[in-house]
């Protein structure tokens, strides 16, 4: 379900949307790579040898729960979905995408530029929010296949996750079970955050002002995505120079 991009918003809707977007922008602009592994987590991954099922399960869940860009995309994906079947299809499609490239990147040794990948992840946030606002239909007169878009962006998100692990150069001993556990942990973390977000959105939809508030929030989600894109592209060109 999408809302026309020209819909008006005011009052509580603007305030609520501004709060949500301000939080997102603060997290992204303040530390756009906040979900990187660091400190004890990074040291553990770098030093681990052999299967470490439960620790990697925990690290995967933690990594997803602090991945602001990933979470903005997932929440945007389900923002206007009302039927459980649709939610399950869209979330599963995204999970298939990012699970495939996460394992392909780490286990298959496929390397991509982390800045460009994260810039495209920012674009994915812009895309899903723009789609939620009905932008494609209103401005371009077309409606892309959302499922294919989510699958495609899921593949990119997976490479984004893979680059964070690759930077730590994990040991080949136990790498397969550890990465499978890490991937399952990511799915658990995503599911937990998604359940909490959906509970809030379902409660929010009962408000008469939801339509106006939803427009503001998605418009500012787009802004958050653009901020992430600008940051990552800036880092890419600085590194290239």
**Multimerization status:** single chain
User: Biggest β-sheet: count, sense, barrel?
Assistant: none
Please estimate the helix content. over 70%
Beta-strand segment tally: 0
What is the succession of H and E elements?
HHHHHHHHHH
Tally of helical runs:
10
Overall radius of gyration: 18 Å
How many domains? The number is: 1
Structural class: mainly alpha
Which percent range describes the beta-strand content? under 5%
Low-confidence stretches: 1-15
User: What overall geometry do the principal axes of the alpha carbons give?
Assistant: globular
Mean pLDDT, to the nearest integer, reads 83
- The end-to-end distance, rounded to whole angstroms, is 44 Å
């Amino acid at each position: 379900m999408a809302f026309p991009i020209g819909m008006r918003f005011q009052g509580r809707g603007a305030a609520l949307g501004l709060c949500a977007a301000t939080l997102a922008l603060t997290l992204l602009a303040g530390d756009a790579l906040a979900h990187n592994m660091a400190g004890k987590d990074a040291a553990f991954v770098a030093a681990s040898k052999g299967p470490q099922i439960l620790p990697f399960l925990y690290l995967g869940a933690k990594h997803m729960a602090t991945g602001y860009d990933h979470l903005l995309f997932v929440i945007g994906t389900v923002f206007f979905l009302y039927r459980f079947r649709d939610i399950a299809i869209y979330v599963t499609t995204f999970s298939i995408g990012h699970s495939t490239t996460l394992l392909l990147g780490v286990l298959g040794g496929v390397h991509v530029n982390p800045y460009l990948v994260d810039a495209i992840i920012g674009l994915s946030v812009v895309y899903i929010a723009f789609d939620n606002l009905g932008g494609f239909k209103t401005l371009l007169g077309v409606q892309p296949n959302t499922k294919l878009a989510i699958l495609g962006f899921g593949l990119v998100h997976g490479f984004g996750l893979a680059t964070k692990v690759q930077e730590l150069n994990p040991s080949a001993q136990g790498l397969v079970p550890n990465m499978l556990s890490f991937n399952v942990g990511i799915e658990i973390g995503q599911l937990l955050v998604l359940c909490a977000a959906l509970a809030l959105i379902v409660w929010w939809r009962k408000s008469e002002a939801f339509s106006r508030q939803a427009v503001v929030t998605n418009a500012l989600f787009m802004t958050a995505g653009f901020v992430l894109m600008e940051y990552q592209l800036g880092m890419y060109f600085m590194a290239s120079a």
